[in-house]
Target: pyridoxal kinase
Amino acid sequence: MTMKKTLTLAGSDSSGGAGIQADLKTFQEHDVYGMTALTSIVTMDPNGWSHNVSPIDVSIVEKQLDTILSVGVDAMKTGMLGSVDIIQLGAKKIADYDIPNYVLDPVMVCKGDDEVLQPENTDAMRECLLPHAIITTPNLFEAGQLAQTGTIKTLNDMKEAAVKIHELGAKNVVIKGGKAFYHEKAIDLFYDGHEFTVLEEDKINTSYNHGAGCTFATAITANLAHGRTVKDAVKGAKDFVTAAIKHGWKLNEYVGPVRHGAYNKFTR
Model:
């Protein structure tokens, strides 16, 4: 028996809801073999839950990647990368190992923050990683930064940003609108370079959504590893993360993660 092999190059969330912890839980739920290369360790202040990001030396990141890529992978995603050096390293390894099905989750901030952690990283993602991506999965803020269109407020703004991001090299783009718009549905927009597909779900009235973005991108990665088309991989991931958000739960007074096993437990 063999399993499809997947790689996540991302940060570690010590609270367990996002980052590589979310990625591994999502990979497991999709029956793929998940491997991890850590770029940073994110810890939280118990008094107020502010984030602290501790980078991992780029030489150690490279050793992790070479360990994993020596056995080969069927799909790969990147999340929090932390520095231009690591972004450039990731791009080099994707090219050197001819990695198929690369998913770029362009993490720019920790949830709860509203400023880019390091603006130079956005430039490096735009230049180095987008051209390799079979799909990228920005939220509204990240899409505006990648496309350099500024704040996205409407569906037409989403379409404009998606086109610009596609022109930068990503083969497909899905922009996560979620429940941000004043609209009766939670809206995401998929663009394959030819046509737009609006993905809608009923809004879920919850603040327990920690890790939703990581989970969505990772579910796409796992679906691609299984050979699904990009559009079908996105639709499947949308169903998976919707169930995870619907069954999110309170971890402490500051945060509530999504429930990664909800789709398989409650909808199958």
